[in-house]
Amino acid sequence: MIFSSLAEKLQDTFNKLKGKGKLSEKDVKAALKEVKMALLEADVNYKVVKDFIKKIEERAVGNEVMESLTPGQHVIKIVNEEMQALMGGSKEDIAISSEPPTIIMMVGLQGSGKTTSAGKLARKLDKDGKNPLLVAGDVYRPAAIRQLQVLGERLDLPVFSMGDDSNPVDIAKGSINYASSHNCDTIILDTAGRLHIDQEMMEELESIKAAVDPDEILLVVDAMTGQDAVNVAKNFDQRLDVDGIVLTKMDGDARGGAALSIKAITGKPIKFAGTGEKLADLETFHPDRMSSRILG
Ligand code: GDP
């Protein structure tokens, strides 16, 4: 499970603090040094770690904390609050258009889990009482269209496709007419990814964005890729001004650096977490729950 090594180390550190009773400034600083090491080992961005520790130190090394009856608990509470803030504070919902259809555009590198996440999101919206339409806009990856059609069949949800020799901008535009004539209130647009960020992919995504003006652009990134995921997110956000992030493969043994750095570096919140290969494996991302899970 993601964060298991980080959680173990932090819980060790805090158990020592809790056992101490009264704390000196030196005790707190020593504990924070351990927290810092644990975060760096979890592949959290260096600058993010530095700022994070500084904030906690400012709050924790002071009379109020030292003189409280349970200073250890007090320090843990501060770490918990700051960790929650680091991941965005509170959960963030996706935008729903007041005039249907709501258009959600999924972007991301190939292999990040974009198509799977499109299916998972469709399932979730369907369960929430929406009528989603999946749109096969990845015309380059062999089998991407078929993959989406299979997901649609399994979910019993419509899939709009114009084959793989159509222009993705035309597909995106065409899906709006299709949605209105088929009573679909939400369009989930799968788009093409590449193995690496390239100019052509970005230009195409920009053209789709300009053509259909999505209500929500969700960037799908793979938690297993750590700081690479953060760099990828930064790049996509600079070009497309994304609205939120879907962090996939949180069920793997990723160290957690991406989850803890991405909001601070890009300013964009993680909205969903992918927690497995099955269509039900998508969770709304709750920074408070995630933080509590890490701190035990
Ligand atoms: P795309 O190229 O970005 O559209 O990627 P796919 O949706 O085809 O996913 C790539 C691989 O990652 C597939 O084998 C998926 O089953 C797998 N995958 C996607 N999301 C998750 C997740 O949250 N957890 C796990 N374990 N695997 C995932």
UniProtKB/TrEMBL annotation:
GO molecular function terms noted in the UniProt entry: 7S RNA binding; GTP binding; GTPase activity
Catalysed reaction equations from the record: GTP + H2O = GDP + phosphate + H(+)
Swiss-Prot/TrEMBL keywords: Coiled coil, Cytoplasm, GTP-binding, Hydrolase, Nucleotide-binding, Ribonucleoprotein, RNA-binding, Signal recognition particle
Sequence ranges assigned to domain SRP54-type proteins GTP-binding in this UniProt record: 269-282
Localization: Cytoplasm
Signal peptide segment: none
Record bears the keyword Phosphoprotein: no
GO annotations of cellular component type: signal recognition particle
Biological process terms in GO annotation: SRP-dependent cotranslational protein targeting to membrane
Its EC number(s): 3.6.5.4
Binding residue positions for GTP: 108-115, 190-194, 248-251
Main localization category: cytoplasm
Family assignment from sequence similarity: Belongs to the GTP-binding SRP family. SRP54 subfamily.
Entry comment, domain topic: Composed of three domains: the N-terminal N domain, which is responsible for interactions with the ribosome, the central G domain, which binds GTP, and the C-terminal M domain, which binds the RNA and the signal sequence of the RNC.
Subunit organization: Part of the signal recognition particle protein translocation system, which is composed of SRP and FtsY.
Functional note: Involved in targeting and insertion of nascent membrane proteins into the cytoplasmic membrane. Binds to the hydrophobic signal sequence of the ribosome-nascent chain (RNC) as it emerges from the ribosomes. The SRP-RNC complex is then targeted to the cytoplasmic membrane where it interacts with the SRP receptor FtsY.
The protein's name in its UniProt record: Signal recognition particle protein
Lineage: Bacteria, Bacillati, Bacillota, Clostridia, Halanaerobiales
